[in-house]
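idk why but the lab printer keeps eating my pages so im just putting this in chat instead. protein + S-adenosylmethionine:
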Amino acid sequence: MFLRMDGILIDSEKKKVKSLNPAALAITYLTGGAAVCLTVVCIPFLSPALRRICLPYVPATTKQVENVLTALSTRSRSGKCVDLGSGDGRIVVAAARSGFISHGVEINPFLVLYSRIAAFKAGVSHLTKFYSCDLWKTSLMPYKNIIIFGVDEMMGELELKMAKELKSGSQVIACRFPLPNKTSSCTIGSGINQVWIYNY
Ligand SMILES: C[S@@+](CC[C@H](N)C(=O)[O-])C[C@H]1O[C@@H](n2cnc3c(N)ncnc32)[C@H](O)[C@@H]1O
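predcted complex ->
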């Protein structure tokens, strides 16, 4: 038995043809459409959990963003910032508001779209760029200020990537989880809002 697009229900064995009630047909298509839309929106949020290193979307707290801005406050505005895994773009927008050219790298295209709208609303579109790509495949060479709110398991591998790619004079701001081997030059805040600053 199968349902044709025009709502005719066909019983293939008995060759019996019935018409479905239009309201039932509308509900069937609406429910199916909603399920497809929900799946399409959820996949980018769930897929980081299936990667080798699971880095879920957890937005920075207001205090954490303040601590990042304090860390950036002594830096020259001529050096670009990048937030690796930029989420909804809050750190990128905050850095741009304080005068930095600021980029976000984010694997979830919906969060990239949201971030671009947030930057537009904040009037900093001209200072920001959001890339829908993998942070592990992003070169850090153009940046002097690197911000990462990651997970403990990724910090060792990221430390090696930074040691290879960062130019002298660069600064890394690690939120919530420090780099495992490099000694930080200072730390700001405590608990979940703590950030560590590393100079290269
Ligand atoms: C802990 S959240 C941090 C969000 C943002 N930086 C903040 O502080 O509000 C980590 C973000 O990294 C993104 N992400 C996970 N794996 C990624 C990857 N391989 N490349 C780029 N972004 C990734 C997630 O989608 C998530 O938005």
